[in-house]
Amino acid sequence: MTPENTRQKGSLKALAKELNLSITTVSRALAGYSDVAEKTRLRVVKAAADANYVPNSAAKMLVTGRSGYIGLTLPLRSEPFSDPFLGEFIAGLGEALAERGQDLLINTVAANQTEMQVLQRTVESGRVDGIVLTRIKEKDERVDFLRKRNIPFVTHGRTLHDHSDYSWIDTDGEFAFSHATDLLLSLGHHRIALFSITEHMMFRYVRELGVTQTLENSDSDASVTVSHVDRFDTDGCFAEALRVLRQPNRPTAILALTDDIALAVLDAASELGISVPNQLSVIGFGNIPQASVVPPGLTTFDQSTRTTAEQIGKVLMDSIDGKTVTQQQLIRPFLVSRGSHAAAPNVKSSA
Amino acid sequence: MTPENTRQKGSLKALAKELNLSITTVSRALAGYSDVAEKTRLRVVKAAADANYVPNSAAKMLVTGRSGYIGLTLPLRSEPFSDPFLGEFIAGLGEALAERGQDLLINTVAANQTEMQVLQRTVESGRVDGIVLTRIKEKDERVDFLRKRNIPFVTHGRTLHDHSDYSWIDTDGEFAFSHATDLLLSLGHHRIALFSITEHMMFRYVRELGVTQTLENSDSDASVTVSHVDRFDTDGCFAEALRVLRQPNRPTAILALTDDIALAVLDAASELGISVPNQLSVIGFGNIPQASVVPPGLTTFDQSTRTTAEQIGKVLMDSIDGKTVTQQQLIRPFLVSRGSHAAAPNVKSSA
DNA sequence: TTCCTCATCCGAAACGTTTTGAATCCGTGA
DNA sequence: TCACGGATTCAAAACGTTTCGGATGAGGAA
After folding, report:
1. I need a surface site. Which of A19, B72, B206, B349 has the fewest CB within 10 A?
2. Which of B54, B67, B98 is opposite residue A109, by nearest beta carbon?
3. What is the pLDDT of residues B59-117, one digit of tens each?
4. Mutate to test the interface with A, among B2, B83, B293 (most CBs of A within 10 A)
5. How many other CB atoms are there within 10 angstroms of residue B250's CB atom?
6. Could you give the domains of chain B?
């Protein structure tokens, strides 16, 4: 049905010759400059459409110095396989970029190189107009590099110090875990366990802070014990949960830094015949797909990954366009209340 | 610690001047040609490393005609949000490409354009050396376009007709559903319902085929009724499941074309107080994260998305290198046997 | 000495755009 | 008739590579 006009050799030159015009004029006509007569502009546009003309990306890039690409480096393969976060994130990002005509360039680091090398090559080769960084560590050399290199970038998450002079979007983990702690306290829980992670990620820091600060500021005599587990090691999480739950004075509530960990905790509870939420409350973070179907339903926080990614895309676009100075945003996750939390057992003992 | 040599103005020209050599020689030295003296080669390589030189991507692209990018167009936003498939797929693909130094270029289609337009622009602008296509329809114009355009591409899935002259990797859905049907028959099920989808995707066709063919070829008098639902419309799936399960002679087993649908079916069964697997067997496809935690555990097929994506990457690389003719592969999913299937109730009635 | 070969290096073209600064054309007012 | 100005158009440079076809120089054979 459609013309199916399959060009092979595309170029302004060919178009120009066909139209008896100079390359300059054709180029400017297509770009919509006002110094080309309306009549010829129409001629050119029509011919271009007929010839199925699309400007060569490399040539344009070379002369304008802009590629139209945003760089994102993929997590290393050591990271977990089934990560719903990644798909969501990319989808959200892609959408924000598409509106402005940018595309997303994804680099995976090969076996024989480091993420920093990939990042450096990507930036120095002029492949990208901007960079998105995820999984920010408390101290992150990638941030230092990009800052020094003076290329637009936005991070998902932030470093512990010196995060005032670059743009970032972060999930307000402190708020979430503070909220969760308050919730547990109000339900009469006194012995709380926090399952945190071993990695030095910034989000670990703020989430732990949310718990400890809230506890300190409360007039409750509740206490929290912290475990540090490898969040990608399900067996390890499970084992630690078993250990904690077998203690004589076991906690009545467990806060898990991620839903994956919460899942392992639920498993362990089930293994030990501990009923959730009657004998144990569990609250996670992330609202992964499993959360809604695992019995009795995991109470957790939704971090609206997609929205966050869209925000990141927008801020980055602004930054590339030179429109704004640095922007920083803390996005509040919201509690998804399901069946895994309840009032503490033995409520009688509440002062 | 590191030199932190922040170049701003990179170019062969600068390097050449610094070394008192011609641009040609520097270029050829870095490329490892044999017509540059070993001694100067070492000098050049050292200087390049010191200067932190990375060749400009656009310039290279322009002259070589190769970008080093593989194109992947993202599903439209109408698709479901939480799709673990996408992340897996991109991760697998990225990994295969990284080994050969290719990167992944992701295009999202904006609101005012079609996927075909995006694809065409991407190809015609010379942005990519090859294309990966997913979600193949029974008849797919994208395949036709790429074939005509004569650019390397590999599809995940295949079209119904004429799929012999291009490269594809597909999941053997026919095998899986044939297997599942056999399994149900051997467990004594006579009334089977198949929950299929409304879209005209190629995978629908082959999965349905697996069921019907197996049934025809068996000497059982079992029958199958087919429902067509919108797989992204959870409520619709649920409603249809309710309808089917409320029938006087309701099926004793349900095959769901995807795990999402299976989840809705499990929900409906639970709503009606029908016990799975005692009164109803349910088998899905995809092995999404929920499958392992939803009670009583969803029996389903794992399609090893990551491996598939890696294969696609490899085949595409071969194709770009001109190494091979078309390659086609059917990857067998494997059954993940969990708690949602069992022998049919009323086994006495087996002839 | 002269010529040839080999090793090494280099100038210039080419890739397909965008953009600058100038050229051309036309009508109008003097 | 001539100069001027505005509206159009264009030639050429530039972006940073790769590569083709020599150029240069040294050493050895005739």
Report:
1. B349
2. B98
3. 999 999 999 999 999 877 655 545 678 888 999 999 899 989 999 999 999 888 999 99
4. B293
5. 16
6. 12-55 (1.10.260.40), 69-171+306-319 (3.40.50.2300), 173-303+336-349 (3.40.50.2300)
